[in-house]
Amino acid sequence: MTTDIDYGAFDALTFDCYGTLIDWETGILAGLRAALAHRGVDRPDDELLEAYAATEAALEHGPYLPYRQILAHSIQILGEELETTISDADAATFGGSVADWPAFEDSAAALARLKTRFKLGVLTNCDDDLFAASNRRLGVKFDWIVTAQQVGSYKPDEANFAALFERLGADGVPRKRILHVAQSLFHDHAPAKRLGMTTVWIDRRHGRPGAGATPPSDAQPDATFTSMADFAAAATP
């Protein structure tokens, strides 16, 4: 685990939300099982997560749709793959379930600690209203919020990062002074490294096989921590 970064070189920290701050795997699994259980479908957690991840990523790569629609379409496609049918009503319920996804236990305290030293931003593959519900669980006022809805595309599209750079640049924070912090190697670290950013990986799945709810990637972050608490302690000693 590499943790050696000069944090004095950065003025702003930008975060992915889902998977990093919000426990989306727990939320996704709860929603999937609620829809699938009474249809007699049962699969191991990681099998469901990996199948769901592939479906969601494919839809996000296509024409832009609001995230709640991405979720709804994803669970219906997954249902077809599992030889069952997910009703429009159950799909819509899953699409709105983001507001119920829990925050990781260390997220709020870590963000509060980091806020004492850095400005904070979020770059999220979500709708404005769904992220607002998640943000209430995090208890911090972000200095910048850039959503997929605002950009009209989803990470790993570099357009989302371009919007982030523009937003922070307008407030006097250049790209080289931004440290990006995320769990997803696929959605965040791969495009961020292509764009010359320094990144920190919050490896929430440490010790568990597979990539879970994110497609696999061979991106190489600059530092790795297994929790937001450990990262905050290192960045704000």
Please explain how this structure is put together.
By secondary structure, the protein is an alpha/beta fold. The chain has helices at 24-36, 45-61, 67-81, 88-95, 107-115, 128-138, 148-151, 158-170, 185-194, 228-235; strands at residues 12-15, 119-124, 144-147, 178-182, 198-202, 223-225. The protein has a six-stranded parallel β-sheet, with helices on both faces. The longest helix has 17 residues, at 45-61. It is globular, with a radius of gyration of 17 Å. 45% of the residues are buried.
Which structural traits does this protein have?
single chain; 237 residues; alpha/beta; six-stranded parallel beta sheet; 10 helices
Largest sheet geometry: 6 strands, parallel
Please, how many helices? 10
Unreliable spans = none
* Strand and helix order: EHHHHHEHEHHEHEEH
- Strand percent estimate: 5-15%
Distance between the termini: 18 Å
Strand order within the widest beta sheet: 3-2-1-4-5-6
Overall SS class? alpha/beta
| Number of distinct beta strands | 6
Radius of gyration: 17 Å
